[in-house]
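ok, trying the design again with the full structure, not the truncated one.
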C-alpha cells in the first residue's frame, strides 16, 4: 500500500491520513519529520541537510528525495507508506519516480481530494470564528488571508501534479466535500480494491 495524498490545504488529507494509518498499519511520512529525524540521527543525507540549513539555505529536492529513500527502507515502511505533502512539484514527482524505480518499488495510487476552494475558505473562516469564540488562540494558518495565500501557492506549485499523475494512470479522485466519514468510506473502498488486486 504505497500512496500519495494530494489536495489543497484544508481538504482533509491529515484526517484521512490518520485513518489510513490506523486501518492499514502503514506509516505516514512527513518530509519535515523525516528531515528532522535524519539530522538528529546524523545520517549522511541528514548531515548534508544540516549543513545547508545552518547556512540558511534551502534543502534541495535531491536531498529530500534521498531522505525519503532512506526512510522507506525502514522496517515499518516495508508493507507500504503514505506520502502527504511530498512531492509538492512536478520536478519532485519525477525525482521520486526515478528513485522508486531504482529500488523496484511502484506506487499503488495517488489519491486526490477534490474540493470547492470557495467553500474551503468559508470553512476555515468559520473554524477561526468558533475558535476565537471559545477564547482560544486562532492558528495563524486559519486566518482567511493566510489560508488564501496557501491556496494560491498550492494552485501554482502543486496542482499541476494532478495532470502529471493522471498521465501515469495512478490518479484517483475522491470528493473531499462529502462528510468526513463518507470520504473515509470512499478512500477505504479504493484502497481495499488495490489490496485485493495485489493479493490475487
Amino acid at each position: 500500500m504505497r500512496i500519495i495524498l494530494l489536495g489543497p490545504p484544508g481538504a482533509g488529507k491529515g484526517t484521512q491520513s490518520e485513518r489510513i494509518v490506523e486501518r492499514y498499519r502503514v506509516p505516514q511520512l512527513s518530509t519535515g519529520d523525516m528531515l528532522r529525524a535524519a539530522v538528529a540521527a546524523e545520517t549522511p543525507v541528514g548531515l548534508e541537510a544540516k549543513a545547508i540549513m545552518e547556512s540558511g539555505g534551502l534543502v534541495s529536492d535531491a536531498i529530500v528525495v534521498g531522505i525519503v529513500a532512506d526512510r522507506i527502507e525502514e522496517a515499518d515502511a516495508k508493507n507500504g507508506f503514505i506520502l502527504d505533502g511530498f512531492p509538492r512539484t512536478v520536478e519532485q514527482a519525477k525525482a521520486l519516480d526515478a528513485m522508486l524505480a531504482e529500488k523496484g518499488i511502484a506506487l499503488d495510487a495517488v489519491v486526490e481530494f477534490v474540493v470547492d476552494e470557495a467553500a474551503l475558505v468559508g470553512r476555515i473562516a468559520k473554524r477561526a470564528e468558533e475558535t476565537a469564540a471559545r477564547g482560544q488562540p486562532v492558528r495563524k494558518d486559519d486566518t482567511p488571508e493566510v489560508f488564501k495565500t496557501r491556496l494560491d501557492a498550492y494552485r501554482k506549485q502543486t496542482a499541476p501534479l494532478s495532470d502529471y499523475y493522471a498521465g501515469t494512470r495512478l490518479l484517483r479522485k475522491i470528493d473531499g466535500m462529502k462528510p468526513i466519514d463518507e470520504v473515509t468510506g470512499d478512500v477505504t473502498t479504493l484502497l481495499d480494491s488495490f489490496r485485493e488486486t495485489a493479493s490475487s
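Keeping the full-length input from now on. The chain has nine helices and five strands.
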